[in-house]
Specification:
The protein is mainly α and 519 residues long. It has a domain of 247 residues. The chain is 84% helix and 0% strand. It contains 21 helices and no strands. The longest helix has 37 residues. The two termini are 28 Å apart.
């Protein structure tokens, strides 16, 4: 059942993302053509400034979700309801705090914006961003429940439909009115309707969570939540300082327009991640259940296979982006929107480091290992911010991203793996780092071959050239990886799982056909 849910999550997410990605690129092109790069930068800046609100959340959500895995596996409705009600109450309080902080933060916005563009009705623009955050917080407990139960695919279709509607509506508004306020308002309205529809789905599947009676949580669970919340507070600080300060630094010291340029890179990278991520994410959705129900040896076998999948995906993405991203931006938006080559290279390094260690983070969080490194993310964040602030003065834009590289290598790169291997697997962590080094060398060799072939067989930045480059990357990278990894235990484990699922699908088709014949 766990594997079947993972397959459903993966397939539905992939279909959704392909459609959404195509519309997203069309929408971005229309946005830049009608409003310009500075509005794009302001859009990204406001998103990052308001993501500061994650600091008040303090990890309550993650800790409660971690405690949901076992009662969901055992169908303990009383405990599920108690945890969901706690989640709802906590986020209701946090929403009020967030609203107050957003009001206090508004007068400081001008300090973060280095721009000559005047945004009319800025207070309304800001209010729309804040309102969307509030709607997300008030509904967070519902999405946490259905995702913890590995039933996220039930909402994926709705989310896909609403995102398509949203994108088409925003394109229409921009084409007709060229108005940024209208662009944001239509997005907010549809987002509210989307949350209402998804709420109906969750309540229909879990009607018992609407029980108004008092639901008590046992003392052990309370202590676990309190302990993890304290630890996750520092994780949130570190996460914000690492992931959400780049746009603020670039806007403050260089200019909002460069934030717009950078956002085109991040959009392509994030869309590719969104397309590939469900493969790891779909498997990761079942990790909490796996850890709660299986022994450590089984968990470690799944981890090694997931790690190979993660490497395959993110190393492929890095090589693919190195060869296609900049030619694609020139073809898609036009000349004059590229960053310098060194900055681009450092961005890809950070993407690779972050992607490869995502599987470590998934298993670590699902195992509830928050306390062991509770101060590490804050230290990482301080190093990131400090290094970026110093380096941006000497090296400009690239200094911001070198700061991220330094902080990643200084703290989480080695520390998260150490904790996971010691606390969950009870295996020497050197095995992880040896494999990491081998995998990285394989990626560099594969990238060198692939890039050489792209340069030999393609010229210019036409659509045909992009297609040929893409085909070379897809074929060459996957053929090399297949030859290298085919005989490994991890690959064979993956193939066995695929065979089991294929046989189960065959049996379902046969049974369905027989039932039709009998009827």
């Amino acid at each position: 059942m766990r594997t079947q849910n993972a397959v459903k999550n993966i397939s539905m997410s992939l279909i959704s993302q392909v459609i959404i990605i195509i519309l997203g690129f069309v929408s971005r092109k229309v946005f830049i053509d009608n409003l310009g790069a500075e509005y794009l930068g302001i859009n990204g800046l406001l998103t990052n400034v308001l993501s500061m609100m994650v600091l008040i959340e303090s990890g309550i959500g993650i800790s409660i979700v971690y405690n949901l895995y076992k009662p969901l596996a055992e169908n303990d409705r009383g405990k599920i309801t108690a945890l969901v009600h706690l989640y709802k109450k906590a986020y209701g309080i946090l929403t009020i705090i967030m609203l107050g902080m957003s009001i206090i933060l508004y007068p400081l916005l001008g300090k973060f914006m280095k721009t000559d563009t005047v945004i009319p009705e800025m207070v309304i623009v800001y209010a729309i961003f804040v309102t969307k955050n509030i709607v997300s917080y008030l509904n967070a407990y519902k999405w946490a429940l259905i995702n913890a139960d590995q039933k996220g695919y039930l909402l994926a279709r709705n989310n896909m439909i609403f995102q398509i509607i949203t994108t088409i509506a925003k394109i229409f508004i921009l084409k007709v009115t060229h108005n940024y306020l209208g662009f944001l308002f239509i997005e907010l309205v549809i987002f509210i309707v989307q949350n209402m529809v998804n709420t109906y789905v969750v309540h229909k599947r879990y009607p018992y969570i609407r029980n108004k009676g008092r639901h008590k949580i046992d003392q052990d669970t309370k202590e676990n939540i309190n302990k993890n919340v304290k630890a996750m507070f520092f994780h949130n600080i570190g996460g914000y300082l690492v992931c959400s300060t780049d746009n603020i630094l670039i806007s403050t010291f260089i200019g909002v327009k460069i934030v717009g340029f950078y956002s085109n890179y991040t959009m392509v990278i994030s869309q590719l991640s969104a397309l590939l991520g469900p493969i790891v994410g779909g498997i990761g959705a079942g990790v909490g259940n796996l850890i709660a129900t299986e022994d450590n040896r089984k968990v470690y076998d799944v981890f090694k296979t997931t790690y190979l999948i993660s490497f395959w995906i993110y190393s492929f993405a890095c090589i693919f982006l190195f060869n296609l991203l900049e030619p694609f931006i020139n073809w898609w938006i036009g000349e004059g929107f590229l960053l310098d080559k060194i900055t681009f290279f450092i961005i890809l390094i950070n993407f690779y480091l972050s992607g490869i260690r995502s599987v470590i983070g998934t298993f670590k969080s699902k195992a509830g290992l928050f306390v062991q490194d509770k101060y590490a993310p804050a230290v990482e964040g301080v190093i990131n911010l400090g290094a970026s602030l110093v380096l941006i003065k000497y090296f400009g834009l690239v200094g911001v991203f070198i700061g991220t590289t330094i902080s990643t290598l200084a703290v989480p790169f080695w520390n998260q793996a150490r904790i996971l291997y010691r606390e969950l697997f009870d295996i020497p962590v050197r095995k992880f780092f040896i494999k990491y080094a081998v995998y990285t060398l394989i990626m560099l060799g594969t990238g060198w071959i692939t890039t050489g072939l792209c340069r030999i067989f393609t010229r210019g930045e036409s659509f045909i050239s992009l297609v040929v480059r893409g085909m070379i990357c897809v074929i060459v990278i996957n053929v090399i990886y297949m030859l290298v990894f085919f005989r490994t235990r991890e690959f064979q484990y993956l193939m066995n799982v695929a065979k089991i699922q294929f046989k189960a699908l065959q049996n379902k088709v046969v049974k369905y056909t027989q039932d039709k014949v009998m009827s």
